[in-house]
Amino acid sequence: MNQNSGYWVLSGLMWIGFGIKAPALRYNRDPLYVTVCAVLFLAGLTFCCSNPEVVGALNQMTGIPNFSAPLVYSLLTLESALVLTLLVYWREGPPAKARRWARRLQAAYGLVILGIVTLFVAGEAPAERLVDFEVHYASTPLIREMVLLYLAAHIVASIMATVLCARWAASVTRPRWLRRGLRLLIIGFGLNLGVGLPKVAAMIGRWTGHNWDAINAQIFQLCAFACTLFTFLGFTLPMVGGFLEQLWSQIRAFRHLGPLWRALRDAIPGMSASLPVAWWDFELKCQRRVAEVQDGRLALRPFRSQALAVAAAAQAEAMNLPADLTEARVEAIVLADALARKAAGDELPLLDDTSTPLPRLDREALILVSQAIRDPLRNPPFTTADQHPLEPPAHGPVNA
To answer: DSSP alpha helices (H): ranges in the chain?
Structure first.
């Protein structure tokens, strides 16, 4: 990979991160979310404009030698200001305090950008340098100060961002993908020091009569790629990881609800909707399956035995089962009995909706019920309402 390709890779990584988050801008106009997208887009633009090929093209297009130098420095300074603003709003607690800090940072970095442009206009940099601008003009009045101003702002921002992320990560326990993203951002912002410090070292070498250009050329490229990779992952991992975790949760719930849903569907054919759902839309498929299971429970209401529910609850309490497992076991026993009664055409009197409401079960509770119905040896269903749950059915367990 040549040097120019490396810049395209770095800008591409940031633009991929922007592409992952940008679609949500259609409905999420939260200023902080917009700022995250702006940081990722701006970082990609900065690396693009730092590419020697683009540097030469911009200089030629404007007719100003080294026009790209103050442009890239200003973009990097603006990016630093946005990153620090994000971290301050995320970390600093009360909104009023965060706003005060953010305004101070924005004002300070705005003055830095103004200083960069002013010093470039006032100074002289006639020889175009596509790669080693900082080192070549290390001793040129005003241009030297411009470079030092940019490097100072960049290094201070890297230190502040690293410290803020470290302090925040120490206090975050959940969500876990946010904690993991913060740890990667700590590494990314810490490595960002390796982008600025080698340039300072190379400039000091020129001032003292030494040639430390190799430090800048080698360490800068390595740290630039590494810090960009970790920053990209740190910003995108919470969103991508959270999405994949939620997707897996929906797939898992859809699959685990299968035994209960199929048992109810076989007993109540009209329970399932006929409208098709895209194979990849597991959120909607899971919501529909939960809704259809709840409808099936309601349809079986005339066949539910309250006496059996009381007896099953007593049995579960005697076994010292956790509350969620007790609830699931009782519901599985009652539903299995209701399914058997409906199949046999034996209908109990309708229950009073007000006096004996159905247990309110969420998705996770229904999953436990489905697992209990699927495991007849551990949670045996019963075929008659007057049979005690401690006694096995006369004809053996029924696999619902």
So the answer is: 3-21, 31-50, 52-62, 68-91, 95-122, 133-136, 143-171, 176-191, 193-207, 213-256, 258-267, 282-299, 306-318, 323-344, 363-374
- In this prediction the pTM is 0.69
Burial of 279 (0-12, 13-18, 19+ CB in 10 A): exposed
Tokens of 398: 């029924």
Q: How many residues does the chain have?
A: 400
SS3 177: helix
Angle, CA 373 vertex, CA 367 and CA 378 arms, to 5°: 110
Amino acid at 76: L
Q: Which of 159, 105, 117, 164 is nearest to 142 (CA)?
A: 117
- Measured CA to CA, the distance from residue 31 to residue 37 in angstroms comes to 10
Separation of alpha carbons 280 and 267, rounded Å: 28
Write b or e for each residue in 19-56: b if 16 or more Cβ atoms lie within 10 A of its Cβ, otherwise e.
ebbeeeeeeeeeeeeebbbebbbbbbbbbbbbbeebbe
Quote the CA–CA distance of 319 and 333 in Å, as a whole number.
Answer: 15
Residue 83 has pLDDT above 90, yes or no: no
Gap between the Cα atoms of 382 and 5, Å rounded: 70
**Angle (deg, nearest 10), helices 143-171 and 95-122:** 160
Q: What is the pLDDT of residues 276-328, one digit of tens each?
A: 777 778 888 888 989 889 888 888 888 888 888 888 888 878 888 788 888 88
Radius of gyration of the chain (CA): 32
Q: How far is residue 329's CA from residue 322's CA, in Å, rounded to a whole number? A: 10
- One-letter amino acid at 355 equals S
Scanning the structure block, which residue is given the tokens 């076989």?
266
Between the alpha carbon of residue 335 and those of residues 20, 329, 341, the distances in Å are 44, 10, 10
Residue 210 is which amino acid?
H
120, with CB counted inside 10 A (0-12, 13-18, 19+), is: buried
pLDDT at 392: 34
